[in-house]
From TrEMBL:
GO terms for molecular function: hydrolase activity, acting on carbon-nitrogen (but not peptide) bonds; hydrolase activity, acting on glycosyl bonds. GO terms for cellular component: extracellular region. It is found in: Secreted. InterPro entries: Glyco_hydro/deAcase_b/a-brl, NODB_dom, Polysacch_Deacetylase. This is Putative xylanase/chitin deacetylase. Keywords: Carbohydrate metabolism, Glycosidase, Hydrolase, Polysaccharide degradation, Signal, Xylan degradation. It comes from Deinococcus peraridilitoris (strain DSM 19664 / LMG 22246 / CIP 109416 / KR-200). CDD domains: CE4_NodB_like_5s_6s. Gene3D superfamilies: Glycoside hydrolase/deacetylase.
Amino acid sequence: MRAFLLVVLLCCFGVARAENFTLVYHHIGVQKGVTLGVTADELERRIHQLLDAGYRFVTSSQTVNNRRGQKTVTLRFDDGFEDVFLNAYPVLKRLNVPGTVYPILDLIGHPGHMTHDQIAQLVADGWEVGSHTRSHASLADLTPSSLAWELLPDDSHRYACIAYPFGRHDARVRRKATSLYGCGGTVAFGVRVSDPHALQGPLITPWDDSVLMLRAAGGYDLRSLLLLGSPLVTALDQRGTNAHAPRFWHPSGFEMLGSGFLAYRWVGAERSHQLFARSRQVALNAAFVRGEGAYDALAIAVNTDPVTLSWGWSNRGPLLGAALALGGYGEVWARYDGNWGVGADLCLVDYTRIQAEVDSIRGGAADVSYALPWNTREGRPWRVSLGHDAGFYVGSSMRFVGSSMRFGSFELSARVHPTQRRFGIGISSMW
């Protein structure tokens, strides 16, 4: 029951009155997946619904100065596809509604993408233009030098805002974006404008004609159902003994995370469940383990760059933690919950992640993952991993992008432990 109440608290973290609802589209008039595009008629119907309900349409940068309680909506079009100019622009022009387009800078003028002249026409009619980075890279997988290149606006334009590709970002990305842009767009669900560089952008759904007004009130999407169902997963799962924290988890997680994170993993008979939610420099971290052992933990973390300190509760007793950021290359951390653990989470080379931990009960573990140089326009979604945790294991993971199921903030993983004859799978979402 205590775990149930703690997760409910986490689900409610950051809830506030509606301030701005963002609809994120990629294609208009071209069928490219249930969360990426709609027809022009569907777009027009949804705009009419919101106008009839008293909503006022604003651009991304205008949301930053919204007064609490205003009913505003932002239409955001990522990637800069030409079908947005051909199919969405006439609808918005006829209804006198502004939009915000985020083109991939290096693809402007390429086949299927808007030209500079088309973008200039949008601006002349009240649209706003932001950056969707130079090449549509997965920003959270980059080292500081590559991250700076992706985020740096080109010499001839200044952009008010940036939209993070796939919504995948972390504290390193947000810190750099703050120095270059007035605001940043994520794919987080919700409506509260608390951090201008973490503006929400909930995923569209196939049922928006019916549930749009409900979604507008709270910024809900399909991930909201997963998050609200999290207490049931923990409350209904069987308990055990010999509790321990999930591998590589610590209560001071901040530097390598964005606005939120949700993960479920199964390895052999063990199930683990992790949650993270951030509002400005404060975060909540929660972890739960079931199977041969049971572990429940919740902590509040406060970041005072480059140090993050945390304190909370676990079923072992008081929970304390600390982490130190390493200048954009990751963090080192320590955890105490009756037993101690120290570790590191590093990005020393682009698209390579190194995690290591030494635990006073279980000893050491390490994991190295690498994103293969395939489908670079979709953030190199396929990655392989090699690690050691009471026996070597190999694994791979595939983010759902580049196909008819382009869920860019989701990741599905699989892991094999040959020496222990164990198999593991996991699903996570980062936003």
